TrEMBL record, chain A:
Gene3D superfamilies per the UniProt record, alphabetical: Cytochrome P450
UniProt keyword Ribosomal protein present: no
Organism: Actinoplanes regularis
Top-level division of the source organism's lineage: Bacteria
PANTHER family tied to this protein: CYTOCHROME P450 YJIB-RELATED, P450, PUTATIVE (EUROFUNG)-RELATED
Short name of one Pfam family: p450
Gene Ontology MF terms: heme binding; iron ion binding; monooxygenase activity; oxidoreductase activity, acting on paired donors, with incorporation or reduction of molecular oxygen
InterPro entries in UniProt: Cyt_P450, Cyt_P450_B, Cyt_P450_CS, Cyt_P450_sf
Swiss-Prot/TrEMBL keywords: Heme, Iron, Metal-binding, Monooxygenase, Oxidoreductase
Protein's recorded name: Cytochrome P450
Record-stated family: Belongs to the cytochrome P450 family.
UniProtKB/TrEMBL annotation, chain B:
Region (Disordered): 125-144, 520-541
Cofactor(s) essential for the protein: FAD
Domain Reductase C-terminal: 415-494
Cited Pfam families: Fer4_15, Pyr_redox_2, Reductase_C
Location of the FAD/NAD(P)-binding domain: 87-392
Keyword field contains Cell cycle: no
Keyword Transmembrane helix: no
Protein's UniProt name: NADPH-dependent 2,4-dienoyl-CoA reductase, sulfur reductase
Family matches, as PANTHER family: APOPTOSIS-INDUCING FACTOR 1 (PTHR43557), RIESKE DOMAIN-CONTAINING PROTEIN-RELATED (PTHR43557:SF2)
Keywords, sorted A to Z: FAD, Flavoprotein, Oxidoreductase
GO cellular component term of the entry, any: cytoplasm
Taxon lineage: Bacteria, Bacillati, Actinomycetota, Actinomycetes, Micromonosporales
InterPro entries, per the entry: FAD-oxidoreductase/Apoptosis, FAD/NAD-bd_sf, FAD/NAD-binding_dom, FAD/NAD-linked_Rdtase_dimer_sf, Reductase_C
């Protein structure tokens, strides 16, 4: 038996709490070819170059047949078309523009900005809920419910349906972080019910549109038309999933990092605007998405003396790039005062995260409230238990003790 | 507060436009316009935007952001002396001059610093002057550049440098004083080329756009609802102003002597696409047409006579025929100056007229003419925002560094323009190309990348609403990759076969290339173009 490759060790659950030294090993070589034919890249510049390389594909149909089973599981069961995250241009660009029309600039530039007070209100209510306790799981009480409520609001699910809707979302996003067979089954059931619900909601909004995203998606025809049938459902599911576990992890990893760095926590309480740079550094230092597992090349690519072969799976280890000393000075230092902080937490190039502005605001608001309102917070377990997934890395639970909650 | 975006780096991720929508606005797929002086209520949102920009292209005033720590200066003997007690004089207080001054202080220069500028205003940004300032979206014509740090300089604004004496190392000023220096930075840039007939140029209603004052008057006139605007020259500035008129609903005629717009910078193939877009937006574009004369009544512009025999009634004419390098003040100095500027080595040190490099005179920005190793060490003259910044940084570093610690300026040129909702970016040196091939996307949808090749080698690329791909070509150009691209890509064009790039056949001074190859000899006063095929020339128009 040969020794496990750095990537095999990274994937190994035993290393979930501290993968960083393994990333350093990974960066010792620009490109690795795993025994199964997968290529793995961990340097900042190399990843960034590949994310802007027109030979790189996100479409699973570009994998050679022998690697088809290496493609990550589809977002939704059944015959749904690929959502935009798994497509290439020109289809990707068209789907993304149609989706963005309902989400941001240039068509709806104010949507996220105007949502800020709503976000603030939601997180205030959630933190209010901690009053009277001496300890709480920050994942279950804040990090998890906050983004679900936000996306529910954004999509335009009526408040009376929100609990039902959120009950379906839970098994769907959970299966992603911890894919066990039971979870996968629960997810399939939830999908069916969610699909039926969304279909009805879409019908209803077609006749009686509101300011929400679903109404926009089913009524507003931009120059490129609208999403129909499977494309619509695939996009809605993607928005739910892509915006979920990721944001949960950012808030949870963020709070964990703050409790490990009391000076930063203190500054977050007192310095105005500190949360802005803090969250940027958290995204770099403790990113939610550790790697992009869904790429392949449509032509052979020479990189760092190795050929990334056409049709083989290609994994880009964003979290390793974020700690690459060739690009980032003192990368293992958690330093919110860094200037020119560039990182790969949201990817780069044409698939750059659609929800990044929302995720940043959510994390800024949630962490600021926790810092300002929890009196004397302490970690109960360090390291906390981690989710199974090496891709969406974050704690399953983050139990924290505190001595009271300040009013908002 | 003040904001500037390095649009050379910007890839249109719109994070800024999401987070501070009153300050940053996306136009079309990826073109970004910004308000250079947002109100103070916008401060937190602007800081959010600046932190979130994935390529860190946003800059705000030092006072509004975290202080930038000085970088640790490399300790070497010669550099040390220059760092500590030298007298540095910067002539030309604009983008290159300010960037150099900030870099000097950042690198620990503690000596005296004098900034000499003939414009009365503090350094300001020019690109918005033909874009958001004219449409009125930016709140004022005040585009003063944000300050990254206090440069602690003696500012001599509103005073021109009139001569340079290299024997005594002094600069003479228009107010009759002399300033002595140990190191000099020449950053006097370019001025607008005026309409050649002085009496016609003096008519009220005839404008050029180079300065903030130019922009302010023009904006006023465009707002007053002129009957028709005539734009003379369809280079980048002319095309951008045509776009502004179309947006404002002002009737506009563009007269271009060449066969298409943007031909000097991007060639005829791309020029035709640009022509189509102009016409779709209702611009009366007349190619291969010259303006024969401008005619006025009581000192006011009334009509223009065109070489196609027509006469048009116009109230405003914008002369967009490129620039003239501000080197007259250096003419008696013995330095290697000519129509393409002041020649320097790869480390920004000026050459004298006999081709010897000087030790204490440095050059940066639009006025510099510098050899580029990637293009066979030929001298390039560039009028690019990004070049002014990177060259100024290298010049400043080298001014206070020992010879063991000097940097070469190796940046590949990158340029952008925003017009008719399209974001156009180019990298490399397209005008030297003999062929062009579309490599990605769809020309019909105006979302594509095209590559330029010279004798089978990739020398440039242009993206049309496809800027996120341009980095790839940037890298390939640095690697001297073959042309056409020898591999498959994910979004191939309908027709990717190479065709002639159609750059103009003869040297037209003052035409619209923004990067010009000016030969091998630093001391040439009249630069010759070195080409196997007849090539482009000119300057930004
Ligand atoms: C309307 C407009 C739009 C533009 N748009 C773009 C764009 O979209 N993209 C892009 O890449 N670039 C663009 N540019 C070009 C960009 O602005 C220039 O490359 C940049 O300004 C160069 O900076 P500089 O400091 O070298 O020179 P300049 O900005 O020209 O500054 C030189 C300064 O020196 C002063 N000076 C000259 N002679 C003397 C003297 N003897 N004594 C004292 N002072 C003197 C001048 O008055 C001026 O203030 C645009 C330029 C203009 C005018
Ligand atoms: C901290 C939170 C988040 C992180 C770290 C994150 C990270 C990422 C990354 C790395 C990608 C690139 C995927 C790729 O290149 O294949 C991506 C894409 C995407 N994200 Fe996010 N995301 C977050 C939150 C959100 C939110 C809140 C939403 C939606 C509201 C969202 C929607 C999307 C979508 C739709 C894509 C696909 C874009 C495309 O393929 O063009 N994300 N995200
Ligand atoms: S790259 Fe930066 S400056 Fe450009 S649009 Fe995106 S956030 Fe704004």
């Amino acid at each position: 038996m040969t020794a496990a490759s750095p990537f095999e060790q990274i994937v190994d659950y035993a290393n979930r709490a501290d993968p960083w030294p393994l990333y350093e090993k990974l960066r010792a070589q620009p490109v690795w070819q795993e025994a199964d034919g997968t290529f793995v890249v961990g340097g900042f510049r190399e990843i960034d170059a590949l994310l802007h390389d027109p030979r790189i594909s996100s479409d699973p149909s570009n994998l050679l047949p022998e690697y088809a089973d290496k493609a990550p599981p589809p977002d939704a069961p059944g015959e749904l078309p690929n959502a935009l995250i798994r497509t290439d241009p020109p289809r990707h660009d068209t789907l993304r523009r149609i989706t963005m029309r309902q989400f941001g600039p240039p068509h709806r530039p104010d949507l996220i900005d105007e949502l800020t007070p709503t976000l603030e209100a939601i997180v205030t209510r959630l933190v209010d809920g901690l009053a009277g306790k001496d300890d709480a799981d920050i994942v279950d009480t804040i990090a998890y419910p906050f983004p679900v409520e936000v996306i529910t609001e954004l999509l335009g699910v009526p408040p009376e349906d929100a609990p039902r809707f959120q009950a379906w979302v839970e098994p769907i996003v959970n299966a992603f972080g911890d894919p066990t067979p039971e979870r996968w089954r629960a997810r399939t059931d939830a999908f069916k019910q969610l699909a039926a619900y969304m279909f009805d909601l879409a019908q209803q909004r077609r006749g009686d549109p509101g300011p929400d995203m679903i109404s926009g998606l089913v009524t507003d025809d931009g120059p490129e038309g609208r999403l129909e049938g499977g494309d619509l459902f695939a996009t809605l599911v993607l928005l739910l999933i892509a915006g979920h576990e990721t944001t949960v992890n950012l808030i949870a990893n963020g709070w964990l990092t703050l409790l490990r760095h009391p000076e930063a926590l203190r500054r977050l309480r007192t310095e105005p605007d500190f949360s802005i740079r803090l969250v940027e550094e958290l995204l770099r230092y403790e990113p939610s998405v550790h790697f992009l597992p869904n790429r392949s090349a449509v032509a052979d690519i020479e990189l760092g003396g190795t050929t990334i072969k056409k049709g083989h799976p290609l994994v880009l280890v964003l979290a390793s790039g974020n700690r690459d000393p060739e690009f980032i000075p003192h990368p293992d230092r958690f330093d919110p005062d860094r200037t020119g902080n560039m990182h790969l937490a949201f990817g780069s190039g044409i698939h750059y995260c659609v929800g990044a502005p929302l995720a940043r605001l959510e994390a800024q608001l949630a962490l600021t409230q926790l810092a300002k309102r929890l009196r004397d917070p302490r970690l109960i377990a360090d390291p906390p238990p981690y989710r199974i997934s090496p891709i969406l890395r974050g704690p399953t639970h983050l139990p924290v003790a505190f001595s009271g909650v300040h009013p908002a | 507060m003040r904001v500037v975006v390095d649009l050379t780096r910007c890839q249109g991720y719109a994070q800024c436009a999401f987070l501070a929508p009153e300050v940053f606005r996306m136009v079309g797929d990826e073109a970004l316009l910004f308000d250079p002086v947002p109100s103070d209520e916008q401060r937190v949102k602007v800081l959010r935007a600046a932190a979130a920009c994935p390529v860190q292209a946003l800059r705000v005033d030092l006072a509004d952001d975290v202080p930038v720590p000085p970088i640790e200066p490399a300790r070497t003997s010669g550099g040390d002396r220059a760092r500590g007690e030298g007298r540095i004089v910067v002539v030309g207080a604009s983008l290159a001059g300010l960037t150099a001054a900030e870099t000097l202080r950042e690198e620990g220069f503690t000596g005296s610093l004098t900034m000499i500028g003939d414009e009365p205003a503090e350094p300001y940004d020019r690109p918005p002057l033909s874009k958001q300032v004219q449409t009125g979206w930016a709140s004022s014509t005040d585009t003063t550049l944000p300050r990254r740090r206090d440069i602690d300089a003696d500012w001599r604004l509103g005073v021109a440098a009139t001569a340079l004496d290299l024997k005594h190392n002094t600069v003479s000023l228009s107010d009759g004083t002399d300033v002595a220096f140990d190191r000099l930075l020449v950053a006097t840039g370019v001025r607008a080329r005026p309409w050649p007939v002085a009496a016609e140029a003096d008519l009220d209603g005839v404008f050029t756009v180079r300065t903030r004052a130019d922009a302010a008057v023009l904006r006023e006139r465009l707002n007053a609802g002129p009957r028709r605007v005539l734009i003379i020259g369809a280079g980048f500035t002319g095309s951008e102003l045509a776009s502004v008129c179309a947006e404002l609903g002002v009737p506009v005629t563009v007269a271009e002597a060449g066969p298409s717009p943007l031909i000097g910078a991007l060639g005829g193939v791309i020029g035709r696409i640009s022509a189509e877009i102009m016409r779709e937006h209702g611009v009366d574009l007349r190619t291969s047409t010259r303006v024969a004369s401008l005619q006025g009544e009581q000192g006011r512009l009334r009509r223009a006579l065109l070489s196609d025999g027509t006469t048009i009634d116009v109230d405003v004419a914008v002369v967009a025929l490129g620039g003239i390098r501000n080197v007259e003040w250096l003419e008696g100095s013995g330095l290697a100056v000519g129509m393409w500027g002041l020649a320097c080595d790869a480390g920004c040190r000026a050459f004298d007229a006999s081709g010897l490099v000087t030790e204490d005179v440095f050059v940066a920005g639009d006025v510099a003419r510098q050899p580029q190793p990637v293009f066979g060490y030929q001298f390039l003259a560039m009028e690019h925002w990004g070049n002014a910044v990177t060259q100024a940084r290298v010049a400043a570093h080298n001014m206070i560094s020992d010879k063991t610690d000097r940097w070469p300026h190796l940046e590949i040129p990158v340029f952008w323009s925003v017009q008719f909702g399209n974001n156009i970016k180019s990298v490399g040196v397209p005008p030297i190309a003999d062929q062009i091939a579309v490599t990605q996307g769809s020309v019909q949808n105006r979302r594509f990348v095209a590559a330029y090749g010279y004798k089978g080698r990739l020398v440039g690329a242009v993206s049309w609403n496809h800027g996120r791909w341009l980095d790839h070509y940037h890298r390939l150009i640095e690697q001297a990759a073959p042309f056409p691209l020898p591999y498959d890509v994910t979004d191939p064009p309908v027709d990717g076969s190479p065709v002639p790039a159609e750059f103009p056949e003869r040297v037209l001074p003052a035409r619209d290339a923004t990067v010009v190859v000016t030969g091998h000899d630093p001391s040439e006063r009249q630069a010759t173009l070195i080409h196997s095929s007849p090539a482009a020339s000119g300057s930004r128009s």
